[in-house]
Every structure is written in C-alpha cells, then in structure tokens.
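URGENT: need a sanity check before tomorrow's submission.

F., can you look over the Helix-turn-helix domain-containing protein record below? I want to be sure the sequence and structure line up before it goes out.
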Amino acid sequence: MTDIKAVVRVEHPDIVLTATVTHAPGSKVRSVSEAGTDPTSGKFFYHIESSDFQQFEDGLRNDSTIGKFERVIETRDDEAIYSFEYTDKAKILSPVISDVNGVILDMANDGSAWILTTWMPERTALARLWDYAQANDIDIDLLRVNEYASLGNTDAGLTDSQREALLVALERGYFEEPRNATLGDVAADLEISQPAAGGLLRRGIKRLIISSLRDDGEPPD
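Structure tokens as predicted:
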C-alpha cells in the first residue's frame, strides 16, 4: 500500500475558527496534537500566536463556530494555549480525515482559507474528504500530493520508537476528534511515561513533515 501526504486548501465561513482569524488576521493557529485530553470532554486545544489576545478573544466571542473557550496557558507574551468547544454550526474536517485513518500534520490560515497538510494511508482516502466538502459547500483545492511507502515500512527519518508510537496512537484513535484515546492510553500501551510518549509523537510528526517537504522537489513557502 502507498500512503500519501496531501496539502489541501479549504474555504468556508463556518469552518471552525475562520471568523476569529479573519477578525485577528495576524494570529497564527495550530492544533496541539499531543494534548492528553479526555476524548469525551468536547474540548479541543490549539496553540495560538498573537500580538493582541484581546482582539483574538473578541473574534472568538463573535465566532459562531466557537462555544466556550479558555486561555489555558500563556507560554510567552505572544503565545498561548487555548481550549475551545465547538458549536453545532462548526464545520470540522479532522473527523473526516480521522475516519480514513488519516492525520492532520499541520494547519495554517491564509486569510480566508485553511491550508491543511495531511497524511493518509492511501490516495483513495482523499475521495472521502472531497465528498464531505461538496456535501457542505466547502471550496476545496488540492495543492500538492506526494506518495510514499507505508508508514509502517518506511523510516522517513523516524526512529523505531517514534514509528511505533505513531502507529499505536493511530490504531488507538488518538488522532481522531473527539479522541478515542488519551495520551495516557498511548503511553500505557507503549509502557512509558506520558511525557515520553508525547515527546515521541511530537518528534515523529515533525520528522514526517520535514521528510515530506524535502521530498516535494521544491522549497516550502
């Protein structure tokens, strides 16, 4: 089986957090993939970079896709971790990707749309994402796609421990939203501590991104 890394651009006003970043265009948003949350809590964690958190939070209060939110940790003056609860109006792509055993490696907003870098176990998995987008009137464009040997058979710069951690997390449903497993569950399966498991996942995802970008044949933007 040949897995892929696909970069897609998706646009719709009801994609979660779109209104917020439109209100605070200087803000950068990325999901916290290693957050060890209760999969039934309905809370989703994001790392936010912003020069004006008041403006960012004003955007959240007027964002119909966001219910409750909390600034959990302020790591620096311009960086913080937030938890969000989505409303029923929010259009969320990550569950669609999780349903085909895919993973969102990176996400960024370019003003009105989101650029998602995803890993999927096979090219046909993209069809599910396209079906969801068309059914929900989401504009979607494929910017780039690269094929690789299966994650289980390629190193991509991964150590054996990183590869095992990623595969265990994928099989347990750690990357799904809402999660079917916590970081503690993954750590227990690996028989290591939660910080160690989180470090393996974080470094493994970073290596996958670096390997994918270097194989693109062009420098990243």
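My own read: DSSP finds seven helices and eight strands in the chain. The CA atoms of residues 85 and 205 lie 25 Å apart. If you see anything odd, call me.
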